[in-house]
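User: quick one, fold this
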Amino acid sequence: MGTRYASLARCSDLSEREIVGALLSRDECAALLGRIAKVSSDRSASRSLLAVLARLATPACIWLEGELAVELFEEEGGTKVRVMSEIGAGLRERVLPGVTFAHELDALLAGFHTRRDLTTVLRLERVSARCALLLAGALRDGDEERAPMSTAFDISETSLAWPRAGHAAEDVDSGWG
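Assistant:
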């Protein structure tokens, strides 16, 4: 199936029909994202990547179980894109192979806030200067206070250590309320 998009010479040549066709299966979607990454030397790489990810976040993508969560992490050779599904309780499952784009993170995300079609289905959370998450579900008016569903939750520091001598395992988190 990887040859279906071989005729895609530039990201600007990507049609809406090809994006919708890629939603039919994981293999098709992986092939399209791989091809976009391979030919992403032009300025439209950001637009093409974000268009595919926005479509994945809609009900049109019937094979994706759970909400879409995409991690973009800037590395030395570019930005690694990992497409995952939120499976609940803060856990994510990778649904497509990781793809590396030969662009900086900021370049890939440059057009996000200016495109209304993206901000209605996805929301952007900057985790750090080198990492960002695109999550299904846009913020609506009045939702500014909504807690992020992705990156932060409290973990007892003692949950990562063995109990001290003289303390039972049940005493490890005593005092947490």
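User: anything notable?
Assistant: Residues 141-151 have pLDDT under 50 and may be disordered.
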